[in-house]
């Protein structure tokens, strides 16, 4: 039986997810919530090994299906080993990326379409976020923000790929308006934090 709250953060690389995740965690802890912060790909020892394989720039020959299955494999382990047990203990789980990333990056970015949803039905095993904050920045802004740091295999992809990912997120937000909260992430860090807190106050009695 699920008792906790499952929150995921989504968005393009460079959308400012990490800062907001950290701030939300501190805020909820101050309010007395028990919070675990985790991420995908990764979140478990096995998942972190899978992450290294997926993001390794040397793995140029990796096929789309291999990539999609590896993300899903990392997710399956994460759901069973970390997310479900934490929710059962009544914790708030904040996850940096979840299944929407696969739909946007592999489904749209890699043009794999529905296959990605099929694969991930098994991986998530019915465990979906209660709320997802989609940090929206135009693709150019995101790529500008990651300019200068060493890029992983996905970040090295073309502008056309990232434009498709962006389209994927737009489509997801339209499809799941109850779950996905679109946050204008081009504003100041403090304003974005305020918006997110506002939603959280509506969900939790804090
Ligand atoms: P992330 O951890 O957000 O990157 P960073 O640590 O550099 O901020 O995610 C790694 C990359 O993996 C990112 O470019 C998005 C991509 N990704 C997918 O393509 N599919 C997925 O299912 C997930 C979870 C991530």
Q: Uncertain segments of ≥5 residues (pLDDT<50)?
A: none
Integer average pLDDT: 95
| Radius of gyration from CA coordinates | 16 Å
For the largest sheet, list the strands in their spatial order.
Answer: 2-3-1-4-5
- What portion of the residues fall into strands of 2 or more residues? 5-15%
Helical fraction equals 40-55%
Bound molecules: thymidine-5'-diphosphate
- The total count of helices amounts to 8
Instruction: Give the end-to-end Cα distance, rounded to a whole number of Å.
Output: 23 Å
Report the major sheet.
5 strands, parallel
Instruction: Tell me the series of helices and strands, N- to C-terminal.
Output: EHEHHEHHEHHEH
Number of strands: 5
Given the C-alpha coordinates, what overall shape results?
globular
Output the structural class: alpha/beta
Q: Could you walk me through the main structural features you see in this protein, from its secondary elements to its overall organization?
A:
- With 206 residues, this protein is of the alpha/beta class.
- 54% of the residues lie in helices and 14% in strands.
- It is built from 8 helices and 5 strands.
- The protein has helices at 17-30, 45-55, 64-88, 99-109, 114-124, 139-146, 159-175, 189-203; strands spanning 5-11, 35-39, 92-96, 131-136, 180-184.
- The protein has a 5-stranded parallel sheet, with helices on both faces.
- α2 (45-55) packs antiparallel against α3.
- The longest helix has 25 residues, at 64-88.
- The chain starts with a strand and ends with a helix.
- The mean pLDDT is 95.
- Bound molecules: thymidine-5'-diphosphate (TYD).
- Thymidine-5'-diphosphate binds at residues 13, 39-41, 55, 71, 97, 101-102, 105-106, 152, 154-155.
- GO terms for molecular function: ATP binding; dTMP kinase activity.
- Residues 9-196 form the Thymidylate kinase-like domain.
- Its EC number is 2.7.4.9.
């Amino acid at each position: 039986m699920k008792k906790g709250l499952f929150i995921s953060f989504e968005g393009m690389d460079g959308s400012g997810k990490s800062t907001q995740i950290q701030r939300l965690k501190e805020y909820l802890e101050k309010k007395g919530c028990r919070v675990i912060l985790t991420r995908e790909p990764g979140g478990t020892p096995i998942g972190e090994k899978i992450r290294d394989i997926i993001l390794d720039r040397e793995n140029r020959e990796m096929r789309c299906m291999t990539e999609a299955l590896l993300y899903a494999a990392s997710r399956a382990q994460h759901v069973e080993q970390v997310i479900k047990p934490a929710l059962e203990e009544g914790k708030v789980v904040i996850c940096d990326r979840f299944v929407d990333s696969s739909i946007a990056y592999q489904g749209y970015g890699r043009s794999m379409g529905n296959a990605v949803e099929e694969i991930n039905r098994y991986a998530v095993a019915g465990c979906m976020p209660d709320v997802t904050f989609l940090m929206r920045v135009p693709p150019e802004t995101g790529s500008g923000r990651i300019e200068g740091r060493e890029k992983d295999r996905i970040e090295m992809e073309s502008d056309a790929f990232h434009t498709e990912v962006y389209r994927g997120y737009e489509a997801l937000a339209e499809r799941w308006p109850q779950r996905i909260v679109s946050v204008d992430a081009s504003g100041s860090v403090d304003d974005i934090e305020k918006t997110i807190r506002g939603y959280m106050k509506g969900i939790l009695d804090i």
